[in-house]
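Q: A small favour: would you put together sequence and structure tokens for a protein?
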Amino acid sequence: MYRFSNTGRPLSPSEPGAALATSPLSSLPLRRAKLRPPCLRHARIPRPHLVAQIHTGLQKGVVLLSAPPGFGKTTLLAEWAETWAHPLAWLTLDAEDNEPILFLRYLGEALRQAGLTDLPTEAATWTLHGHPAAFESAFITLTNALEALSTPLAVVLDDFHLLTTPLLLRALADWIEELPPHLHLLLATRHDPPLPLARWRARGLLTELRATELRFSPQEAHAFLTQVMGLTLTEVEVESLLQRTEGWIAGLQLLALSRGARPPTPSPTGGHDYVLDFMLEEVLNHQPAGVQDFLLRTSILETLSPALCAALAPTPMDAAEAQALLHRLEHANLFLQPLDAEGTCYRYHPLFAEALRRRLQDTHPAPLLADLHRRASTWLETHGDLQQALTHALASGDVAFVAAFMARQGEALLKHGHLHLLLRHLRTFPPALLEAEPRLALLYATCLTLALDLESAAAWARVAEQHLQQAPTPEMQGRVWAVQSMITALRGEGEQALALARRALEVLPPEDVFSRSYVAFNQALHHALAAEFPRAEAALREAIALAETAGNWMLMMMARCHLGEVQAARGRLAQALETFEHALALTTDLAHDPLGFRGDLHIEIGEILLKRNELAAAQTYLARGLELCQPWLPTSIALEGYLHLAHLRHCLGDVEGAQAALERAHAMVSLTQSELDDRIVHLYRLRLGLLRGEWAPALEWAHREGWLSATGPNLTACAEPPILDLYIRLNLARLCLTLARVQGEPLPAAQALQILEILLPRLEQADFVEAQIEAHLLRALALERLGERTDALAALSHALALAEPEGFRRPFLDEGPALLPLLGHLQSTRRHRTAPFAPPSPAFVHHLMEAFTTPPHPAEAPAPTPAASAKAALLTPREREILHLVAQGYSNGEIALSLCLALNTVKRHLNNIYLKLGVRTRTQAVARARRLGLLN
């Protein structure tokens, strides 16, 4: 239940990972045209000899098509793809794919469209961390899954020259070094990429098709010019054109389009600028003025549809006329490529598009360019393509236009989780612009609230409210109160939050389910902080239903996460686990996770596994969750994760590891800047200390805070919010019981009993079953120390009865050996049928007693296969353990936390692993270890 009492602040742009965390590319829809080969023209020159060379080269592993633009690389790959009988993943790269987030999203989606539906979808999400180690973890996970395939798979990366990020190139190079026989990679590039091509040639991994192989032969040139271009030429004329272009396919097309008294053209190796100038001079300038203007205006579009082109046309034109013109341009071979068989979607050849855009910028005034982008944005917005609409709105450079777009569509973007996208752009707007538009001010306040920047959120909510003094509307007033209700709820001001929520519901129209979903969520926050869990659950279910009706995906996910926590607090672990797993499946279906809910859910599942004493699985989920969640509202979720990790390390007897995790949690407090966070972390630290018998810090805290004095515990004081007060009283009772053990005096035990007698009715009223189990356990131990065994056994039996149906084991094991005698007496009373109460099942008690005598330990690494025994002997047990964590995608930092090692120690072990396996990177180490059977 930690999350309900937490506030925080947004990720600063200067922090590691902030650049990627706020990238709009992390959460917007994918462009499907990048994920399929282009449609082949019916009128083309088949090149079966080159297709055969590709098939032969695939047996080596990698096929590289490297040649200047216009040599038919993409067309040849599309022709080969029609002959490939196995799964094929196609990805046409662009400059934006240099962001690791976007690259893995597109690569994963290309693989899924190839039919590989069982791939780990977490891979793309892990890169949201924004650090190189996180990308390596994601890439290792993805390539591990590909290595396990039993069928051949080909991956095509077209326009590979646009990939320049060293991190991506290094990961791909490492993967290629260990490419298994059933995986084949095809790269099409305008120039040689910075990959170890010489080494691959020497090892026989590489097949190369360069300009020499791709240029047209005389026979192909003749067929192209006469059959495809429809020209009547003599063999001498064909030979002349072939000599002038040196078989360059695009050059042949250009010269054929510009036949006449033209000077001889140089080779295409004359430079990129020359190619663009040549296209403008020899193609564009020979078109009618109206066609030229149409081409230039529509060059701003990534994808051309007839209706959208008509909206940008220089003269009035309907969609039918635009489609007819596009059809004519396609059949004139004017570098227009169809993207579907129906001819309703096109794109310009990248070279031609670049040339057109250059001419557009050189010859048209900036206001016209801005107007074209505004018109494109408006059309796309009207037709529901908000991603491209926003792209063109931003390209217009018109801040007022972008602001108006945000005011209209901000709610729609927020519904789908694009919180960081909105914040990124809203923060760039002049304050005066935001102040002048109440919808923008309120949108900004909402986004800041969800990012936990509560001070700024409150200020912008006040700005929106000031507008209501001049032009009050009930709907706008209700929305302002809804946002203010969430701000106050997150601050822990429960009564004010509830009052604002009620006022909002009074004025919000019934059809405004978007705002009403937030109000219901705010009410749930209040009830949870007030330890009113049945009401909290009811409000969360209402929030989920309203959010689903409104299409508010983000709030629906937030409410589901909180619902699982409330269910766990009420003792329904199986139901909570089902809630979390269902929510996790929803993020999987989306193939991306714009707000890091996957990390949150991993932590929640890890906590439930910890309560059930499934330590190895809990360790995996907690470490994975911490890796996934850090860039997204990082402080509250990551802080909670580190607290549970500290508990886990305590359970394993790892005092140093527990202390390290607590220190990480404490470091998060400096980010949240929340006094409440500080108190929670301190309480958690004291509780773990008391479980180890370290009572002095807890005693000093109790005296300092006025909870304990020489006359006994303070039973009248009350902390706010109420949920915190319950945790304080549990800690205070545990402290008194510990003092009774240390001092050998009955008075502290009686004081503990006094605290618990007052606390238990409150816990029962709240239906806080999880805390009830702990309170009954403490009560049983206090009664036993006071010599009241029958009552002690009844209290213990009550705790077991609450725990057994859902598998709560950790609360009992946390009490340590002191509980064993009492469990033994309970078993004895059952055997002799002397208990005046209903005892728990003997199997549950037996399993608990067995767990007390079995030292806990994390999952051990599997032994290597016999074939790998020689290599395995080179690795120490610690190195094998680290190698398995690397294979599971753990970063160096998470390995350090999981094994309680210093970061430098982990790096030293990794260097030893690399040396022994003869590799240089994590990716290579995992691939080599898997091939040697060390990870079987």
User: Anything to note?
Assistant: The mean pLDDT is 82. Strands lie at 62-66, 88-92, 153-158, 183-189, 206-210, 336-338, 346-348, 708-709, 712-713.
